[in-house]
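Problem 3 from the worked examples.
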Amino acid sequence: MQTRVVTVGMDQRLFDIKDIFDNVSFHHLVVLDDEDLVVGVLTESDLLAALSPYLGKAAENQRDVQTLTQRVHHVMTREPLCSTPTTGVRDAGQLLVDKSISCLPVIDEANKLLGLVTWRDVLSVLLVENTH
């Protein structure tokens, strides 16, 4: 589980999100509400699907640029599937595969964010287990 997770608010604009993803090496953001409760997940793939493919190209027009003004809550995955600190690695991996998702926010009983598990985290642990 990664405990250093970047979070964003539901009303942030996609130009802020694009800036984050353009400057980091991770691909998932957890969306929190005003009470710091997990309400969604936004992946780099979600962002790319929401933006115009003509951004930054010669054919770009004002409507393409407008896609950057959308808010996170318009494109995030709402009510994401989450795990808890007691969820085992194999169970987390099975959830990722069964639900075709790439991450699981890890929450406590009050729906507060503790961390994030990605398919890479699961794969890394399983590979280490298989080498011992």
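Problem 4, a separate protein:
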Amino acid sequence: MSAVIPYSTPAIVLHWLVALLIFAAFPLGVYMHELPLSPDKLKLYSYHKWIGVTVLMLVAVRLGWRLTHVPPPLPDSIAAWQRRASAIVHGLLYGLMIAIPLSGWLMSSAKGFQTVWFGVLPLPDLVGKDKALGDLLAGVHEVLNFSLLVLVILHVAAALKHHFIERRPFLQRMAWDRKERT
């Protein structure tokens, strides 16, 4: 078995920070959606939007990092079809991590609710108020989110399969333990 080549520290921090924010935003979005209109629901929507805008910004940084830093290679023992599948899933994950916050921002704009990041920085509306468009974007936002959920489950399942069933130390590639890192 070849040595594990880990991701860089910035890549690991960005990976887990974005993952944590997504793991917070998704259940919050599902929960708040069904609540009756109230000040608490509006507060939760604000939190959800703050997380979404933060994810969008962090993913932009993450993409910049990824485009300027070559990720560690997969072990030679990984089959060609798995390499292709990994590249496709990662590409889709990145695409959804951009499309989901943008669809939420577009939806808020179309529904006439300005996005104000952390209650301080008002972001420009991306489209004019349009109820039909807002309703359409709400559906798009939901489909994109559940698509992300499926891909995240696939991503985690693949990492766990490689690590625990095939005994390849995949989890160490994205681990916090930095003792061996130079």
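Solution to problem 4. The mean pLDDT is 92. The helical segments are 9-33, 39-68, 80-110, 131-165.
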